[in-house]
Amino acid sequence: MHEETVYDALTNAHGEAGHWAFGTGFDDPLAGVDTTVPDGIDPADLGAYCLMLGDDALVLAQRLTQWITCAPELEEEVAIGNIALDLLGQARLLLARAGSVGVLGRSRERATATIPDEDALAYFRDVDEFRSTALVAAPDADFAQAVVRLVAASTVRLAVFTRLRSSRDPVLAAIAAKGVHELAYHRDHAARWVLRLGDGTEESHRRARSAVEAVWPLLADLFTATDVEQRLAAAGVAVDPAAVRDEVRDVLTQVLERATLPVPAWPAGAPPRGRLGEHGPELAELLGILQGLARQHPAATW
Questions:
Q1: C-beta separation of 215 from 135 below 8 A
Q2: Are 252 and 245 in contact (CB under 8 A)?
Q3: For the chain, which end, N or C, has fewer CB atoms within 10 Å of the first or last residue's CB respectively?
Q4: Which Gene Ontology molecular function entries are recorded, alphabetically (predicted)?
Q5: Residue 267: closest CA among 211, 216, 200, 215
Q6: C-alpha angle 72/74/80, rounded to 5°?
């Protein structure tokens, strides 16, 4: 008599429809949500915007997972893992929304028909198809840089999601309504670490100060809107990143001042290269790790 193993159960569940990123047996993440594109909105624009937000979450989640087994405290490894999972959940919803309006990417032929669109977008796009910013893609020199980057990225993202709750796109509004609670925790958790390091020992202060000097230039292109963002913001769907610049600057200034860290001059604006698919080698290396197994075995399920 054949007895099914736990691995067989995973593989054979739900008609053998396995997912790369999220395991087997998950429902459509947008099930029950009205995915109709609002009147007057170009689906290509909406898909591109969802990729921007989704790619930031996916790439930052991957960076954070590099601290598992490397964080200074066991409790912190759990916290970082949970933050990464929050971001992965946001990425899944946003990439699924991009897929629902027809975004597939040039590398779609590498995937099989059984791989859901959010997985295909995560694992089978090339680096120049990603729309993430340099802030989330940059590697961390040490833990201080990881938390300084996290407080900066989560502050920006929280300001955007807070406004997206009133988006004309019901999917973006729902994602944002859920995400603001997660992002508020991410920001406050990272801020507490910055305070602890900046106002700690001489060595922790030195490392925190170096981290700020490394992260601040990465903010240069965050508040320069692409044409897509400008069109969608005018239509009430997206948020013009320039609209959150002052809020982000005020929050980060308050964090650094309380941490007894010098506040660098705010970087001059720069073209949004990451949003346009222009990236440094650090993203290609990160995606190689993220996508390697899926690309070697594109038809596999687990």
A1: yes
A2: no
A3: N
A4: phenylacetyl-CoA 1,2-epoxidase activity
A5: 216
A6: 80
Side chain identity, residue 181 = H
Q: Which two tokens stand for residue 207?
A: 């490392």
The closest of 170, 132, 129 to 153, measured between CA atoms, is 132
Give the CATH number of domain 16-296.
Answer: 1.20.1260.10
3-class secondary structure, 86: helix
CA distance 191 to 199: 12
* Block residue for tokens 């019901």: 170
Is the pTM higher than 0.85? The answer reads: yes
8 A C-beta contact, residue 238 and residue 51: no
pLDDT tens for 78-93 read 999 999 999 999 999 9
pLDDT digits (tens, 9 = 90+) for 78-131: 999 999 999 999 999 999 999 989 877 666 555 555 566 888 899 999 999 999
8 Å CB contact between 184 and 170:
no
Number of H helices, E strands in the chain: 11, 0
pLDDT score of 27 more than 80? no
